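Marked as duplicate of an earlier ticket. Keeping the data here for the record.
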Amino acid sequence: MPGVNISELSRRTGVSRNHLSRLVNGHGNVGLRVIERIADRLGVARDDVEVWLKAAAVGARVDAAWASGGEQEQDQTTNSNEQENRIA
């Protein structure tokens, strides 16, 4: 959750840091018990925890995609634009 790091969230919920890290990075599945435990310990709605975990997982996937191919895609776009400018 925003403002709470994984170590603190693990301490508060009893869910291992490794498991929380995997969930936040878009790996693995989160069970209802884990969602309820996080919501209960942080005093937030279960739906808020689900939304936060999904958003974090999507963000992690976007970051990973960018890190692995984003630079190549940008280079290809730049090269394509340069070729178009030379032709024109």
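See parent ticket for discussion. Helices lie at 6-13, 17-24, 32-42, 46-87.
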